[in-house]
Amino acid sequence: MDGNLVDALMVLCSLAYNIIGILIFVLRANERNQFEAKLGPVFNTLLIPFSLFWIYNLISGRDSGRLITGAPIIIFLAYDLWYRTFTDKKPYHHPKSWPIGLYVYVLLYQASSIMLNGYSFLMSLLYGYAVLASYFGSLAAYGYYQYKHKRKARI
Length: 155
Fold this sequence. Notes:
Layout lengths: L2 H27 L3 H13 L1 H13 L4 H23 L13 H24 L1 H30 L1
């Protein structure tokens, strides 16, 4: 397998990751819980390609930047899979007191998203800006979700 192909597929999966994040936040904001629940397994499936690409980069001896920027997404998706699927916890999106697991979840989400941007910028400016734009889209969707929640809480 060619390293350039792996890099292009990594960027494509990064775009898919951010786009799915956008959809999840918009669905959550509009209380479409069934559709959101159906996207969970799709989101968790991204663990497979990200892990394979990371292993390829490790085995082929590619530069450490690809290994460092690719690792957080694997950790986050594994944590997400464990948290939402294996523990069967139903997430409560706005608890009065945040459990430590929720802090870890948000920290891993942000770190992995930022590192995916870094990986994309290692490839090219065009790829980097495309993934960065989709990341900002996910942040905007999260802001929309928070806005809708606060508006509903006032009523």
